[in-house]
Amino acid sequence: MPRTRRSRVIPADPSAVWGVVGDPHNLSRWWPRVERVEQVTAGAFTEVLRSDRGRTIRADHRLSELKENERIEWTQLLEGTPFARVMSEGVTGVTLEPANGGQATKVTLERRQRMSGMARFGGGFMIRRATSKVLDGALDALTVAVVTPA
Question: Which fold has domain 3-147?
Answer without folding.
Answer: Alpha-D-Glucose-1,6-Bisphosphate; Chain A, domain 4 (3.30.530)
